[in-house]
Amino acid sequence: MDLAATQASTMIFPGCPSLKFNTPAPRTSAARISRLAADAKRLDWGAAYPVNQRQGESQPGPALCVSMIEANNLSKQFARHEAVRNISFAVARGEVVGFLGPNGAGKTTTLRMLTGYLPPTSGSARVAGFDIFRQSLEARRRIGYMPENVPLYGEMRVSEYLKFRAQLKGLGKHDSRRRVGVVLDTCGLGGVRRKMIKTLSKGYRQRVGLADALVHDPELLILDEPTNGLDPNQIRQIRELIRQLGQAHTLLISTHILTEVEMTCNRVIIIDNGKIRAADTPANLIGKMRAAGRLQVEIQSAPEVVAAALNRLDGVKKVTPEAMDDEWTRYVVWVDSGVDAREAIAQLAAQYGWPLRSLFRHEATLEDVFVELTRPD
Description:
Number of strands: 14
Largest sheet: 6 strands, mixed
Number of helices: 13
Distance between the termini: 47 Å
Strand content: 15-25%
Strand order of the largest sheet: 6-7-8-3-9-10
């Protein structure tokens, strides 16, 4: 069994790592696609997606559930390392939420628990009202998951691969054909539908992965670094696609591109060292950072003298001098909430005769919020 097939198996059956789809990577035969999908359904692997209800599972009405995702005291431990530490959060239906954090913060582990790929060590979570552990199949029917590194069958053509995936997810021949046509159009893949996946650019392969996540028309899309490895033009195209998808789906997006989050997400959850540090709208988080206040001034004089004088001003909390290439020094001045010390600084410079060439109030960004909440100190 080749690596591509192994990776695809993991993606097809998240939460069932013990089940291995021990079949070589499928070729381009339509009959072979149908036969493989039928085998998967016969073994009940496709039960994660079709409408048949499993016996013994209580089925709450998802339409009555306001939250699409509810995580309560969710934790995951690997040996002595606790990757996720007792986190709780909710995502409402129709929201587009950015899930942010530095490398190793626990983002991907959390997403894998929500999709059923990893069982939590403790805590619980629900997707569309279904418990991800006790009602895993029902929960996974409603999820479209795009992992960070999308595993694809390079030897298949785009439309054939998507049809194969649709049938594995329990769609019949008619529904598969219809949904493949829809996602090809939605993801801008119509022009490459007959091309081999291995010949596609990185951007188009990401689109194929997104189309795969959409093919069974899930209520919830979970995207892990959807713009990973793309150039600026491709990032812009994927961003626009995500914005369109947000009009019809609930989205949880993990990414490092903060400008992308500001432009596409209704709300942001920031996680660091396995714990949630903040959860609010981008505007509110930026507003709180701005309220704390940060000024920047460039003065030509002895840095220790200037810094001491600035620290004595009312409302100033901290002054950080930064040496520049010439005789000038840049000072970052942190002030209390609601304090604007620009006039006092200008008067101080005039009083002591210090040459002053720049004085402005820093406009906070989501990047400032992220750095402030996740920096080691």
